[in-house]
Amino acid sequence: MEKTWKILESESIKLRKPEPEDLEFLYTLENNPDYWFVSDSKSPYSKWQLKLHIENSIYDIYANKEIRLIIEEKETNKSIGIIDLFEFEPFHSRIGLGILILEEFRNKGIADKSIKLATDYCFKVLEINQIWCNIDSENLVSIKLFENAGFKKSGVLSQWKLQNGEFQDVLFYQILKNEN
To answer: 6, 80, 134, 178: which could form a disulfide with 105 (CB 3.0–4.6 Å)?
Structure first.
């Protein structure tokens, strides 16, 4: 098992399972309305809900069809973001990927490294054929991030998301194992 998790480390960061010590970090992330635009959730979580999630998650992607990983800065052991792998479809060999980095850690290459670690894990360990993500059409930073990681735009979901009283398009991006 240790070898599997080693693939989720670089020199400066590691992706790891949430621990009880991450409760405050996750509570802050999940309850920040500024971050709700990247998810379909528009309601806060209680500490109790998040504590139960951490305690009861068996972190078996085959059972849960999803896994959340904490992005940790190795030098400080500080939690600085999350990677979500979701809607795992082993039969069709695909999975969704989402990422969120705390504001003060953006523009430092952490997201690039995190996506690289996550895609390597999906392709090499889970043996996935494709990874996909949905990006708001106005989120130019995320578009550039995923394109730099090798993802290609393969579709547009017109007026897919309601944000600030207006419908916005969502772009569908994919990366295939043989293109990685």
So the answer is: 80
